[in-house]
Amino acid sequence: MSSKDHAARRILVTVLLGTFTVSLNNSALNLAIPELMRVFDAGAARVSWVMTLFLVAMGMTMPLTGFLADRWGGRRLYLLGLWLFLGASLLGAVAANLAWVLTARGLQGIAAGLMIPLSLPLIFAVCPADRRGRVTGIWGFAVMIAPAIGPSVGGLLLELSRWQALFLMNLPVAVLALWSGHRHLEAGRRDRARRFDLRGFLLVTLGMGGVLFALGATSSPDDLREAMRWGPLAAGALLLIAFVRLERRVAHPLLDLGLFAVRTYRASVLVACAQAVATFGCLLLIPIWMQHVQGHDALTTGLIFLPTALMAAACSPWAGRLVDRRAPRGVVTLGLVVTAAALLGLAALGPEAPLWLIVVLMAARGAGLGCGYLPVTTVGLNAVPDTRVAQASAINNLCRRLASSLGVVVLALHHDLRTAQLLAQGASARAAGLAALGEAFVSLALLILLATLLASSLSSTRREVTPDHDPLRATQNPRR
After folding, report:
1. Can you tell me where the transmembrane regions are (predicted)?
2. What DSSP state is assigned to residue 388?
3. Is there a domain that residue 23 lies in?
């Protein structure tokens, strides 16, 4: 193995450590909400900001990563995010009140917003295009496994200790990631001449914050009657529209939306958004379906997600190797079709469905996710020049976050409204819930099937643009 291969492997392990600790922490901390309600004598709405604030802070930070990575370098920015995540974890562990816990979660969200979009660009910087699918598949294994074991780890720690342990468990892996990062991450290219797009930053940050805040606080039809929900949503949407218009005119945009001129990248983002809606939609629908319709307890409901994560983790490296062999269309299409079939299977199950059949369908969902999610992202990032991978990754993450947040709200509102309508027509609570959830699963399956049409436009892993011949320049304003 050459020295370059050794360097690439060390960087891959470094990035895996950082990504793993962020993903593990976020999934494990979900279980602490009831404990935090008891300890701080607070209601569910207030304590739920432990999760919501993390997501909002991450979404508001992501637009900065492309600019900061160009100015400071990806290595420096990634390590800054790791240090911030470590410090925020310590703050959460010693927090004496809920306000400090929320502050720690906000800082963790900022750190995650810096780290997550840079994970793949750091790996891609040391990997040739014909091997990126393989290493991304390995990275995907860690990304899929962490949320799967997070609830189990969190539950065990809560049984053996207190909620502070959920913050302290980040420290060993974070310290190891910092040591490895300072030792192995390469400095990379820096663009000191790039100017900061202050207007764009204010528009996209406030816009993302307003939209994510409004969507995160909307969980029932009654919420739509409150002006405080519509105000941030409308303001955020208008700010994002203004941001898009601004970025098409400025000489140094915060986010280069001209990347959407690349057909493969554009298709990859749209497919990834569809998959994000289905994935997060299932995180909302399946617990309701398992407990209210199927009658299973919370432990069984939590364990039912394990086959999905394990199959996704197992299939991701295999799918990555297929991408390297110039077969992205086939593997992504296969993943989407399997995902749609699993969703249709869930929609067809009755209230007395055997648990083994549910496990099979959840495993099929995981196989589809492993074959579709990371491969399509890899192909999209391979289609843009290396100098724009950080920008492309940040835009991909932002689009997925907006799409999934909107999708979850729409699905939640549909469930409540449709259930209420069927109850008014005389249906039993169980039958109404089953019908509403079945319709939601079918809708998600149709969305995934529509995404398969976009998958047919994916090219091979060869770039559509190169530094010497960059058709994106044709989309830029002549005043640049």
Report:
1. 48-70, 77-100, 106-126, 138-157, 163-179, 200-218, 230-246, 267-290, 302-319, 331-349, 355-377, 398-414, 434-455
2. G
3. yes
